[in-house]
Amino acid sequence: MMNAEAPTSSANTLLDFNTTTFENKRQTPAELAEIAKEIRRDIIRMLERAGSGHSGGPLGSADIFAALYFGGVMRYNPADMHWAGRDRFVLSAGHMVPVLYATLANAGCYPKAEMATLRKYGTRLQGHPGRDMGLPGIETSSGSLGQGISIAVGMAMADKLVDHNDRRVFSLTGDGELQEGSVWEAAMCASHYKLDNFCWIIDNNDCQIDGRVPDVLNVYPIEEKCASFGFDTIVVDGHDPADLVRGFDHFIKNHTSGSGKPTCIVARTFMGHGVSYMNDKFEWHGKPPTHEQAIVALEELA
Amino acid sequence: MMNAEAPTSSANTLLDFNTTTFENKRQTPAELAEIAKEIRRDIIRMLERAGSGHSGGPLGSADIFAALYFGGVMRYNPADMHWAGRDRFVLSAGHMVPVLYATLANAGCYPKAEMATLRKYGTRLQGHPGRDMGLPGIETSSGSLGQGISIAVGMAMADKLVDHNDRRVFSLTGDGELQEGSVWEAAMCASHYKLDNFCWIIDNNDCQIDGRVPDVLNVYPIEEKCASFGFDTIVVDGHDPADLVRGFDHFIKNHTSGSGKPTCIVARTFMGHGVSYMNDKFEWHGKPPTHEQAIVALEELA
Amino acid sequence: MELHGQKPTRHGFGDGLVDLGEKHDNVVVLGGDITGSVLTSLFQSRWPERFFSIGIAEQNATTIAAGLALSGKIPFFASYGAFCAFRNADQLRISVCYNEANVKIGGGHAGISVGPDGATHQVLEEMSFLRTLPHMTLLVPCDYTEARKATVAMGEMVGPAYIRFGRSPVPHFTTPDTPFEIGKAQVFRDGNDVALVACGAMVWEAMLAAEELAKSGIQARVINAPSIKPFDHATIAQAARDCGCIVTAEEHQVHAGLGGAVAESTAKNAPVPIEFVGVKDTFGGSGEPEELMEKFGLTWREIVASARVAMQRRDHGSTGVRAIKDVPTYA
Amino acid sequence: MELHGQKPTRHGFGDGLVDLGEKHDNVVVLGGDITGSVLTSLFQSRWPERFFSIGIAEQNATTIAAGLALSGKIPFFASYGAFCAFRNADQLRISVCYNEANVKIGGGHAGISVGPDGATHQVLEEMSFLRTLPHMTLLVPCDYTEARKATVAMGEMVGPAYIRFGRSPVPHFTTPDTPFEIGKAQVFRDGNDVALVACGAMVWEAMLAAEELAKSGIQARVINAPSIKPFDHATIAQAARDCGCIVTAEEHQVHAGLGGAVAESTAKNAPVPIEFVGVKDTFGGSGEPEELMEKFGLTWREIVASARVAMQRRDHGSTGVRAIKDVPTYA
Ligand SMILES: Cc1ncc(C[n+]2csc(CCOP(=O)(O)OP(=O)(O)O)c2C)c(N)n1
Ligand SMILES: Cc1ncc(C[n+]2csc(CCOP(=O)(O)OP(=O)(O)O)c2C)c(N)n1
Ligand SMILES: [Mg+2]
Ligand SMILES: [Mg+2]
Predict the structure, then answer these.
(1) Of A191, D110, D216, D219, which sits most exposed with the smallest number of CB within 10 A?
(2) 0.80 cut: is pTM over it?
């Protein structure tokens, strides 16, 4: 396995990756907002260089990732992402991986400059997560929707039912992804086994590739569905760091109190949030900004 | 395509198929109970001869089939099961097919003596429905759980959205079958397309192969799940002909009134109902009665 | 054969679907939330009332298609092959093939030339079982025009059928007059020294390889084999007998795809040495399409080298034992 | 080799799983609501705390297995092959194989000998793509004892693996001393006139065929090929060179399974005429196991006839062109 070479950095400093990283501790809501902004900038920078990839979902879920990795929620060691005691995050919506790469880079799990290799031949930052490439923090390959959540449930079973430890497992799916039946198999199983160590996050941006979710195939009401499948389901504002942390705290309480119920956090978000011209536009699901668009985006995110 | 030969009939007349058939009209509840009894007897007769096959589900759902085919619910012509105006029934729980074979035989769709060929080489009465064999009334092959309901939804789409006719489509799934994610894909789609011409019947016998449904993998609460997936859901006593007909009438009203909602009828049944030693016993999911057991069963069903 | 620029085969599918829609009222199309990518969007905008979005639910879409087919419609469902051949494999086997339902599947993003999306999206394994399913027809057109013809042909035959097409622009060189028939292979260039049997984007690479070989006086026969099932045994047997050795080339694993079909067919009719050009039992990865084709050994250069080995083996026999595959290629 | 009665290969799987459970604490088993049929019930009753019922959800069971594997467990999931190779094919490809997750699948009810349940349950197509998936190991044991050894071996290797076994009792003739190794084929009977390469229940039929052929002075080499992937190219190449013709026999479609693997391997190393015994591109149907084996041409008689054709073709060449398959067989 060989890393792709990082291309020499662009002339425009806005487009350059910086070297700042953030600490894995409970940051304040204001700090989380700043971290999310940096994650968003890195998403734009990565995609502009890659020339292909998904902008909308990653930008829209940046606040969720900031809260998860920097809100004192997930327990992990950026210097050793194989640490046996770590909590695990499984990205079921594999196409959203730029936000995870940016988050891991900002946590110091791997060199930030490597973000420039996204989607290039030989990179550890594959177009969809490739575990074989060995990027620290990539727990599993994904990219076929509706599979990651089952993998996460399997991990939570290993922790709770086999190893009897106190680790937690988080998994994020999209809302279009809820159309995959396998998601409901995973959900039914998680509640059957009372996996209170499992937290399912739904990025409810109401968008998918072909349009608004209710137009493509209606998945609403999401909360009733998740509740009827046995989840303690709460809705949060996916762009409010405090509300997100509140949601995750709710899950942690479910776990530590031995509630016997898995938690589902429905995070209401806007696709492309943070970049005005992308905001709430499903057309931005799967394309990168051009150079000019990237500059505009980075100025807005400054 | 060649039919299997009917073995010469048994010495014991209880085990012989008779030639009575019943009319496709709204029979009274008392008549429906009698018809269900004959269907149950034929299931026992078929399985005893086949020496393999599923007893529990077919016996338990006999009242549902009696109501559907003889309660003035389904519109069909036993002399021409390809009649273009017919309503269609799709057996999603393919392993339950003996009850469908018995029902079709009792409706006069094919010679009753042919029931003796169940599961024999070359038969039109395959172990799981085989459309290629051409038995009148077998709308589709099935046997892999969770597929028939999607086929039925496809048929309902053809009727309502393409051909704009007034045909109805019924499909029966088991309750263990609800564990298949593809069932929920079908459900989501049926409500998205407002298929009020579609009626989903769930045989809720609380049993599956490995045990009670909540032990194997809990599917409850069923009604909340179906409701949250957009179905007008009602619960009926699956052994009360009048209640079953009430359920189907509810569906028909949903259709004729243009409610825009698909209907789900959760029929509470007992596996193996009608034969005391099988009643509510999951062990009878997949085996036939021995000769002696069959005699006992037929005496009880006399 | 002349090059008319580059065009993705998926456009041939999209345009062929519109051709069909014009001719047949009962053609309907199911969307799997990537209608733009697989070009079913063209049909959708012409006939919105004959298009149904099913969302991200490939199992359901496939089985709904079976229900529509059993109601007299000719339903097409298209998605990426990774999802509309694998996610729905059980549905294809039972509800489509065992049912002999008149369902048509369009499997896009086939092969490594998908590019930067990476391994999950680069389907390289589906031809193996699609050609093993009874009643299935499997077509792998070589360029835009053939894809368009194949789409119309599969819509007009009765029974389950699957068409495999790619994402990236590839050489466009057949014309409306180039023969196409389900069940037939065509000789695109004559020669008796070695036969190059290819499908999909590898056909043009085989043409280039033949040109290169001609420079050393080797006359290669180039056979376009778009119909993987039913398979044209006669044309392959003839080539084996005339040339005495074969190279197969496909954007698929070296196992069980076109190469497998040719190996089985020749073993049954005229056994000859075969060299297999394809992906060598490894998953793909991110990169630019051309770069990946190069790195994974899917170019005319690999075909030329394989042709020389095949001829060498024909003339001097094989030595040692080699596996079909070599070492993995990615990174 | 001697016959020790009849026993289903699924019992070898169930007992092998118990052997593994005794040796390795981290072996866990997932149930798919047919645990009695596939004998995972034996493991379950010994170690209920290491058994998890997942219900009728093959996609989820497979992917959960991947999650367990990524947590250091050695998860086995078993069901009928129709459902644990096809319903979960996408999960096998991406979450298991691309992930290189240490997941083990037991696929029961393989082949036509399933009997009266009929076509849906008689899986005949899965070897094609399982051997095409990178990183996958595919084992098809010939009898009870080999199934038991293969189960232990797949549990003790690292990486994705699939074992294929049957429902009905079949001849039991290997012993604990018979060699078994992943990646290896074994010569069960020596001979240089024709090679019979078989897997699963067809191995014993090949032994019977060899005996029958011996009566006419034909010495057939019988090769047991339980390791479909990785495949033993050396043993096959040797047989091709020594015998000059081959018959393959498997309870699978004639396309892309064992026959396909042998055809590819010989095309690469030592091309010879091959005759393919298997199901001829048709679905199965209800009937008694032995009756179906007979009707679908899966007996020693078919192997004997095929051996004569193969030798005839070796000695006098082929005439005409024949497809791999013939006409469908059922009813
Ligand atoms: C099984 C499967 N089918 C189809 C796709 C193609 N695909 C990738 S992303 C996507 C849309 C996902 O929608 P959503 O989950 O809402 O994510 P968002 O668009 O909001 O990022 C689709 C259809 C896939 N990756 N996997
Ligand atoms: C996809 C699939 N997986 C597994 C099976 C095997 N199987 C047949 S019936 C059955 C149990 C079904 O339970 P339920 O739906 O409750 O029917 P019942 O036992 O009540 O008749 C199973 C697991 C199958 N036929 N299809
Ligand atoms: Mg979305
Ligand atoms: Mg049940």
Answers:
(1) D216
(2) yes
